[in-house]
């Protein structure tokens, strides 16, 4: 059951909102100030936060939003605002990561719609229905590899998009993180898999040609238009269009694209006829579009139109636990490709070095390095001496640990439990800080605590 936290110092409004959302089947908790809300968010998981923008406390909804984004950047926050504060609320959405705003007096249908939309992006709800195995099956894509928590959440969100046939998706992530692979998977596993999949890199096409590429042109529309040409929207009709590096298109082209997404029709350059198109549009970017909206290089209305369902690919440095899995997958891939070569494996020392490196080029960089090493290496085992210098320069962090294992042995699970308890004691039971000390996510810490029967309050002073 999706969980919602409502923050408002107006008790009457707090009660009304709670009752409305509870009748919709949500688990709803309420608090009357931002500081109490922050404590709750640190101690338990919520799928969405609804907060009044202005409260009597100095620590208001604006401050709460900023603190939430530090703790859980993906947690949707809806801001309740009066008309006089509307401009401030819009700025919070465009510039500081608020999901949307609810204008007072709150309309029930708008509340339900925006809560449902926010929960879809969180992966807690699909088209207003409870999250379940029947409505949101997981998927397994053999060319997208990862077992980390962040990748598993990505797979779940992809499954929801595929199951519901969502027609507008925005994929974000650094260069080389695999955005095009996700776009391809959304098409191949979706209900348009037998229809065209058309991809275009918006950043690789000259500005003078981009609209012709997207929407086509009629004969004689400009000097070099010697014949009629269909744009990729027409070519992709009934199928999927992947707009890679969408953040690189001009504001003028953005305006035309927005019209197409809203009206589902295009007009060729030099033409007079509107042509209906049915296209699933998947956009991707390595840019921060929120910042682009802020500095005026990306239209806010196009951003909101594209950002119906956001999917984020984490950089490789944020999912280090996936590196050995990726390395083994890629080595097997090269082994299958070069059948005449002796099969190879990566030594433990080399694997450790690969895991310590930051990988600024992400999965693409890792694949290119391993490909080169696999082809050039004459040894069955890839060791440290075959790794590039920049990887070898990554030294191990210093440590004062001295580990002495007794002759009788020791249970590894007990050692982990001791460290979990020590981290919780050191942080006075604050899970977020304890997880940071242990180098794991808060969800992973909560899983450990549950398996050991530990509670945060057991580690708080005076309790």
* Helix fraction by DSSP (H/I, runs of at least 4): 40-55%
| Cross-sheet strand order for the largest sheet | 2-1-3-4-5
Mean pLDDT: 84
Overall body shape: flat
Distance between the termini: 30 Å
Strand content: 5-15%
**Secondary structural class:** alpha/beta
Residue windows where pLDDT falls under 50 for at least 5 positions: 125-137, 395-399
How big is the Rg? 25 Å
Task: Supply the number of helical segments.
Answer: 19
Descriptive overview:
The protein is of the alpha/beta class and 463 residues long. 43% of the residues lie in helices and 14% in strands. The protein has helices at residues 11-23, 34-43, 61-71, 86-95, 108-122, 149-164, 179-188, 207-215, 232-235, 251-263, 289-294, 300-306, 323-337, 348-356, 362-376, 389-392, 412-426, 431-438, 442-452, and strands at 3-7, 27-31, 48-52, 77-81, 100-103, 125-126, 129-130, 168-172, 197-201, 216-217, 229-230, 240-244, 265-266, 275-276, 280-285, 309-312, 345-346, 381-382. Strands 2-1-3-4-5 form a five-stranded parallel sheet, sandwiched between helices. A five-stranded parallel sheet has the order 9-12-15-8-16. Strands 6-7 form a two-stranded antiparallel ribbon. The longest helix has 16 residues, at 149-164. The two termini are 30 Å apart. Mean pLDDT is 84; it is low at 125-137 and 395-399.
